[in-house]
Structure formats: C-alpha cells, structure tokens
Amino acid sequence: MQAFQDALRCRFIPRSAREQAMAELRKLKQGKLSIERCIEKYQSLVNRSPMVDAELHCNWFIARLAPEVRQTVTCWATDREMRSEKVELADMMKYLPIMEGKKATSTALAEKEENWPRNDPDLESMDIGAVNTKPDKHGARGGYLKGPREITAALTDPPQDNSVLVQVRMEVHDLMALLDTGCEVDMISGAAARRCSLPVYSLAQSLRLRFADGRQDTRIDKTMGVKCSISSNTGHIPMTRDFYVGSVHHGIILGTPWVTQWKAQMRSSDAAIEVIPPGSDECTSQLSQRHFHPLWFEMWRPCPKKRGAARLPHCAEVLQRIMETRTHSVVMVW
Predict the structure, then answer these.
(1) Domain assignments of the chain as residue spans, ordered by start
(2) Tens of pLDDT along 182-221?
(3) Spans in the chain with pLDDT lower than 50
C-alpha cells in the first residue's frame, strides 16, 4: 500500500484522485471478489491513474490474487519475458479467465476419468508407499520413514495426477517437491496424488519443478517444455526456458548457480541438496548419492527453428556454458 501511495504522490497526481485510488485499492485487498469482478474494478482504478507506471499496476494486481493463481500468473509472465514478449496488464487480465476455464475443464475431466477402471496394459501402477499413520512428535521432522513409506502433510495445493513426489533435503530442513511430468500418462493414481502434497516445512520455502519425460509416453518423441520455480515467503524465482537436452552427472546439477542461489536464500552456507526418488530408503539413498538416476540439464540459448537438427552439447560443453551463463534452469527426468 505504501509503495503505491508513494508512486501516486511522486507523479503529482491530484490529492483527491490519489485518495480515491487508495480507497479503491484497500477495497480490492479486503474484499473477496471473483476474478472477473476484480479485473473490472482494477481496470477502473488503472484508468483513473494513468500516470502510474504499468509495472507497478501489474505488481499490485498480481498481489491481489490468490497464492496459487498468483504463482501461475507469475510463471506465465516470466515465460513471455524470457521470449522477449511484452507483458501488459491487459494481457494478464485476458489470461486469467482463460486459465480459470482450462482449470475447470481439466478438473471435470479428471473426476470423470477417475470413475473409470484403468485397463491399459502398457501402464504400470506406481507404489509410493504406505501412509504413515503414527502421530508426529513435537518438533519432529517430516520425511521418509524406514521401509515402505509415503511423505504426508497438510494439503496446501491440490497436485495433478501426472506427478511424482520427491523429497529435497537440505541439512536439517526437509522440503518436498511435486514433479509434474506434463505427460498424458498417469504415473500415480488420482487417489494417491491427493494424499501427496506441496508442504512447506521450513521458512515457507518450496521447490517446484515442472518437467516432461518422453520415455513415459510412446506418443512423445522428444522432451517437452519445462518450468522451474523456487518460492519463498520473501520472493519468487521463476525459471522457464526453451532448451537443448543432454545427459549430465548429478554433481553438475548440484553445482549450478540457481541451486547455489536457492541455498543462499535458505541462509545455510554449507547445506547440501539431495534429491531422493520415491521408493528409495535411507540406506540406499546414502549409498547412491554419487551414482544417481540419469538426470538431464537444460540451458537456454538462441536456437534454430528445427530444434531436432541441433547437436546436443557434450557434458563438458554444458558445464562450461553453465559457468558462462547467468540464468538457466534444470530439468530432472527418470
């Protein structure tokens, strides 16, 4: 609120108009409006204060949205910026109703599909372990139990069906990430997915990776687009890029600058990041930290229209480009 008020004052907007704009902004932040009504009221506010920077308008509009909608819009805007496309408030307002319509349609289809038995012989069910029914002790960490297990926590964001739950461990902090395959093949059932979650155990931090693995669906002949975002109570670091894909060792992934940036955000100078695939126990994960499942690295660069004709860079070349590039992201598939 203060930043918006200062912006109005610095641009010499009349006091009456400034007070009216601030009053409307307070109503927007306090009320529970539908997306359509929020867009209508915010557009009216923008029209009456045209001298305020468009970026500030966008920031305040995004801040008014629900957390899950805000994150989706932020990723969408970042994706357009990465593609050198201009992001305007009007485009954002057009995108929101479209997004809501797609979400409602996909939810209805998922509920309908779940009522039908799965008889596809090409698909194998994925057992993510038994539910931990024992109550947690005060101050105890969440995470994997010995033997068959499943990580459970309060549901903060309904996960999609095409997902795999993994644990990201940073010293004493236990975080979890829901990895969305982006494929049409269900890797776990809808009922199992609803038991999974995107919990935040420490400092309101979470790591979310969106990836695709062509090996999970024979109809996909190449790896698809990727979205990676790191969220916290202090900010949001979205990563969305076009990519070339090549096999890279687990150690290189952990040494990438965006991982270093995340570790710095956690305020833990010597924290180690370890990604544990579902179904691996404590002993196995400790022995296989250096010999991990095949991982993939992606780095953005200007590419020809026919991406398939491009040569995949050698591992050493990828590592060199990592060090020379300020922004890039990581794709993990198995």
Answers:
(1) 2-101, 163-331
(2) 332 222 333 333 333 222 222 223 333 333 333 333 333 3
(3) 10-12, 105-110, 112-254, 256-259, 261-334
Burial profile 271-292: b = 16 or more Cβ within 10 angstroms, e = fewer = eebebbbbebeeeebeeeeeeb
Closest by alpha carbon to 150, among 133, 136, 163?
133
- Residue 254's nearest CA partner among 175, 319, 202 is 319
Report pTM: 0.23
Residues facing residue 331 across a β-bridge: 296
* Length of the chain counted residue by residue: 334
Dihedral angle computed from the Cα positions of residues 209, 215, 221 and 227, in that order, rounded to the nearest 10 degrees: 0
Query: Which two tokens mark 246?
Result: 């090549």
- What count of other Cβ atoms lies within 10 Å of the Cβ of residue 161? 21
- HSE-CB of 296 using CA atoms within 13 angstroms: 22
H or E element at residue 100:
helix 89-114
